[in-house]
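User: Hi! I'm a student and our assignment asks us to look at how structure tokens line up with a sequence. Could you show me two examples?

Assistant: Happy to help. In each example below, the sequence comes first and the structure tokens follow. Example one:
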Amino acid sequence: MKKANLVLLTFLLAEFSCNLFGQTDPTITGQVVGEPIEFYSGVLWYQMNSPGTSSITSQNFETVNDIYDSFAADDFGLMDDIWSVTQIDLLGAYYNGSGPASSVNVWFYSDSVGLPGQIIYSALNIIPVNGLTTGSFSIMLPNPVVLFEGMYWFCVQANMDQNPYGQWGWTERTITDFSESAWRNPGGGFGTTCTSWQHRVTQCGVGTGPDLCFNIIGDIIPVELSSFEAKVLNCNSFNER
């Protein structure tokens, strides 16, 4: 083989290897779907059905890629009940690498005109009890989240360096319950208009399936227990002997 041809072949192989195994910049979506996870009892909200064809980035990257840090959230509602949420299960997957994530961050929000509003709960650096190898996480909350009747949002974000682990994405869902899921990229690295919370597909142009796949797990608190009031006895009312 001539030297010129050998040099060209070496260059092409290097370029192919770089494109195949290296990812210089994060991408918003990956054409992967999370693997199903074990069913748990005590499901308060079921939204694992109708998964889409892609997973949407929601990730805390290393410092050099901070402009790509992103957040995905979806909503749910409860009526005439009080919930004690103890666990979240969600479909997710790794792409542009095989992971694993080191931990996840979780936030719950009140609803603000169909988008995440005020933060009402946060828990950072939680290690999922299952799913680190696949990206479909079962996340046990360090403290239960007590929710009263109303609409809420929650966000799960993976803590994982792009180099060398790649990306984690939350699997989208082709149908919608309540509002369309939301997304934001505060640093603007992905070049969308969504540096603050906006609807993921119609406003941000991120993915095609409007919702995200997840379950919320916990207990229903009887209303009568929530309104129970203890009475303090007046010790002076007892006759002294």
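Example two works the same way, sequence first and then tokens:
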Amino acid sequence: MTDYAKNSVKDNPLGTAPLIPLIAKFAIPSIISMLVGAAYNITDQIFIGHVVGMLGNAATNVAFPTVTLTTGISMLFGLGTAANFSINQGAGRIEEARKYVHTGLTGVIIAGILTGLIVFLFRSPIIVLCGAAPAGNVYPYAMAYLSITAFGLPFQMFAHSSSTIIRADGRPTYSMLCTVSGAVLNVFLDWLFMYPFGMGIRGAAFATVLAQILSFTLAVLYYPRFRAFRLSIKELGISVPHMLSSMAAGIPNFCNHMLMIVTSIVLNNMLATYGALSVYGSDIPLAVSGVAQKTSMIMVSFAVGIAQGCQPIWGFNLGAKNYDRVKGTYWRAFAAAFAVGVIFFAALQLFPRQIISIFGTGSDLYFEFAEKYLKIFMMLVFFQNIQPITVNYFSSTGNHRQGLIVSLSRQGLFLIPLLVILPKFFGINGILAASPISDAMAFVLSVSMVLVSFRKFKENE
């Protein structure tokens, strides 16, 4: 390590600044970015719910797994690249950090183009797989929405990955700007296209794509001013060892998002099947589930924002062997995420009808099921917030296997099996009970694994 590198590591605020202000500095812009990013989908849901109605809400729910897919791929490249960049920067390996950034950017560009193309070409079977029957009421709305939003997926993936890398470069405010600017444009264009222009659900789709292009443009404009070192278009390319290492760091979050897709597909099909056997029918449960997913995005945005804000702190201090700062950062993030979850839980239990009404109108049965869904299915939401904190902690500290286990636990080990088994005995109420049971089991597993990892720090010391 050169003298310059030693001094830059020693003087870096990631390794010396008080933890709570440091976490706030990185986490608050990240939280705002996540909240505003969620606004892409929430704004669409609100406008569509009021302009198109319940079938529009159901259609965006059916198309939502493609958003989860692109977010997962973005995190596979973005979080993995940022984690390795931070660890190598903390250890003073500047040239290695540079190679990770060039490789990660190349990977997400290629992946974005391929993903957008595949989603567009196979949009019809994707919609059917996600719960909309070809002859049903929801299918044409979902088809119209996804046919347009598929073109924005490459832009959204690059912007999302870049926001993580830019934050790791010490510019959380600019990272936030990339997301916020797109969301603000999205809100304005939603109103313009759906009300004055009367474009319906297609207007919401066009608004989303144009907003994603703006976020993409701002991300591209940042890289010539990268802080840690100079980046060059000529150096873009795939280094297989660096790509595999970044993907290993990002794989827990990627797998978590892939499981979210599988869970969404299973949940939608279970709701449609057992809803048809109940007084609610198949369309009402699908519409309610879509609204609930968008509502929970607000809470999850806080947790993921806190976790992403902590990523540079975890990675840098692990590389610098400041283990007490690694542990202290985790417990402070844990406390903040849990507190947000408790507040969200109280709002869902006390004001379920008012929350649902934000997303449009419906029949008495629609509101009856919606209140039931929010109170039971989302009963232990404060436990959900701990999983993204824990997954990002393991990913950022190079514990990829543990991160993968935690990321797979809630949906893969617990929720999906319960969604299949419980309705056989309890009907649609069994679907609602599956979520809180899964949340409790995943919480116990996450905390137990973190405590084990902390013991290893003591051995290293």
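Here is something you could point out in your write-up. The mean pLDDT is 85.
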